[in-house]
Structure formats: structure tokens, C-alpha cells
Amino acid sequence: MDINALVKGFERFRKTSFQKYEDKFQDLVKQGQRPRVLFIACADSRVDPGLITDAGPGELFIMRNVGNMVEPFAADNEFHATAAGIEYAVSVLNVSNIIVCGHSHCGAISGMYKIPHGKNLVHVRKWIELAKEAKTYVAHNAPSDISHEERLELTEKMSVLFQLNHLLTYPEVKRRVDAGQLQLRGWYFSIETGEIEYYDHHERGFVRMGR
Ligand SMILES: [Zn+2]
């Protein structure tokens, strides 16, 4: 898809979707946004939060980054993009749910096992350390005879759970979760099947959503 295609797409949006949502947009400007969900997803172009949830404008506050990671809370004065989004969604927008959505064929997770050589990926190397607990967990707990693909899927799913743990290091997230005002959810989107699985605390595993 080149730039001309994007411009054509914008023209279609102006003629169709914008008209469909025009009243909604006006309301969202007058009333302000009131999303109930913070959705943390991978920057991967195949994972489109609005598409897979059929959510319209104003419904999802979306943070996307490489590997749908959550950096643990740090009481310093550095730049923290995901942390800033979490803080705003929780303390200002008062979202009642945070979803961390992992996915199949995640380059961030496969990069933990084999990072492309000869590329200047200094920030990627550092960032994907946020999933190293998942890799360590899989190394210690998964059967040794599983395939590399199974190992990657397990790491992708475990990483979602560790990112949820990272969310709990944010004092305001923890306080609201403990008070029953905020729920944390782990999802996993399979690109090839279009299925979503969610982490079920009773089953202690990922369960297919819907149907
Ligand atoms: Zn990814």
C-alpha cells in the first residue's frame, strides 16, 4: 500500500465512514472521550485492535508498542511512553478494563530467541527484555520436546501474563484493582485463524472467546 492508496483511502473515509460517525465525532468532541478500555497491543500491522473488536471511535484507548509490552513502574523522570498512556487512561479517563493483547507470529517474541544480525536494533534489544521472564518461564516449564513454533506461542502467551504483572507495579493500577474498580485481562489474537483466546483464572489457561 503506497501513499496514493492511503490518500484514496482517506477520500473514501471522508465520503463514507466519516459521515456514518459524524454525529458520534461531534459528541466525542463536546463531551470528551470516555473510553472504558485501555487496549495494549503490538505495533504489528496485522493486529488491528479496532478491527478485531469491531470498536468504533471513542471506544478504545489504544497503546501499541513493539511486542505489546508494559514497562514496570519507575519513579524516575525519564521518557516512558506506555507508562504515560497507562497513567492517563487510569487516572484521567478512569477506564474500568485494561486488556493486554498478545498475538501469534510476534516478531518481538521471536526476536528474543533470534534477533536479526547486522542491524542497528539497540532500542529493540533493550525493549524486548521486558519479555525475558516469559522466555525464562518457558525454558523452565515447557516440555523439552515441543516444536519451536509451540515454544514461541507459549512465550507469546506467557508474556501477556507477565505484562499484566508489570501493570500491577503501577500504584494507581494496583489500588484500583484491589478496590474492584479496574480489571486486567490477557488476550491472545491468532492472525491465521482470527480467533481470540483470553486468560481464564479458573482454568489457569487461555480459553477461546465466544461461540
Ligand atoms: Zn508483535
Give descriptors for this structure.
Beta-carbonic Anhydrase, Chain A; binds zinc ion; 211 residues; alpha/beta; 6-stranded mixed beta sheet; globular; 2 domains
Brief summary of the model shown:
This protein has 2 domains: 1-31, no CATH class; 33-208, 3-Layer(aba) Sandwich (Beta-carbonic Anhydrase, Chain A). It is α/β, with parallel strands linked by helices and 211 residues long.
Write the SSE topology.
Blueprint: H1 3-15, H2 17-31, E1 37-42, H3 49-53, E2 60-65, H4 81-92, E3 97-103, H5 107-113, H6 122-127, H7 132-141, H8 148-167, H9 171-178, E4 183-189, E5 196-200, E6 205-208
Parallel strand pairs: 1-2, 1-3, 3-4
Antiparallel strand pairs: 4-5, 5-6
Helix pairs in contact: 7-8
The protein binds zinc ion.
Tell me the structural class.
alpha/beta
Strand order of the largest sheet: 2-1-3-4-5-6
What is the CA–CA distance across the termini?
34 Å
Total domain count: 2
Write out the distinct hetero groups bound to the structure. zinc ion
**Helical stretch count?**
9
The coarse silhouette is globular
Q: What share of the residues does DSSP label as strand, in percent?
A: 15-25%
Query: What's the CATH class label of the largest domain?
Result: Alpha Beta
Computed CA radius of gyration, to the nearest angstrom: 18 Å
Could you give me the name of the CATH homologous superfamily of the largest domain?
Carbonic anhydrase
CATH architecture of the largest domain: 3-Layer(aba) Sandwich
Number of strands: 6
The H/E string reads: HHEHEHEHHHHHEEE
What's the mean pLDDT score? 96
